[in-house]
Amino acid sequence: MLLIKEMPLKERPRERFLTYGREALATHELIAIILRTGTKERSVLDVAQRLFYKYDSIRALNQASIDDLVRVKGMGKAKSVQLLAALELGKRLHQERYVENVQLTTPEAVYAFLKADLEMLTQEMFYALYLNTKGKLIKKQLLFMGSLSSAIVHPREVFKHAVSVSAASIIIVHNHPSGDPTPSPADLDITATMVETGRVMDIDVMDHIVIGQGRYYSFREHGHF
């Protein structure tokens, strides 16, 4: 097996990137550029190829944890952090482009916007989406992580961002790692608290959406407010 330094210059990932452009590189070659170095026994190209073949897609790779990645030969914690950081930047770039024109006036639109972020996670995440008067997204904010309760999810954290961006309304969203979006008693309590706080502050809480596996639950659609 050839190490990168033993390969002809024109076949090395960085040189191919410079000569032919990023679109010409295979996914594992782009990963190799991010990882930078291999090991004494394996070239970085081999490590990247084995890693990508193991997960088979960028989406699956993005869902991997550092503990998962370090099990691949040639991947240590530093390389795993480098890779996940690069994937996160790519995700944020996509979200920035999407946010420019996204309109969130229906539960279906909210689900489509956040399902890639939430439906495959193994822990609960609580987001607030801040909208202008036309229902267009101003800001998406991750507020809480872990098992949610009305004691943890405090209205102060939710509404301070609404005030800072002059939002006209809010949609709150969280996921159920079990895959079943049926609301829990804690979800009902949180929703009631947020709606009441919104009334006091004159900021409409339009909906609370729970995302499960391939489906969602909208509090507004089910007549909770």
Spatial shape:
elongated
Percent strand: 15-25%
Distance between the termini: 64 Å
Helix residue percentage: 40-55%
| CATH uppermost class of the largest domain | Alpha Beta
Widest sheet, order of strands: 2-1-3-4-5
Rounded to the nearest angstrom, the radius of gyration is: 22 Å
> Biggest sheet, in brief?
5 strands, mixed
Do you know the CATH architecture of the largest domain?
3-Layer(aba) Sandwich
How many domains comprise the coordinates?
Answer: 2
By secondary-structure content and strand pairing, the structural class works out as alpha+beta
Q: Taking all residues together, what is the mean pLDDT?
A: 88
* CATH topology call of the largest domain: Cytidine Deaminase, domain 2
CATH H-level superfamily of the largest domain: Cytidine Deaminase, domain 2
Secondary-structure element order, N to C: HHHHHHHEEHEHEE
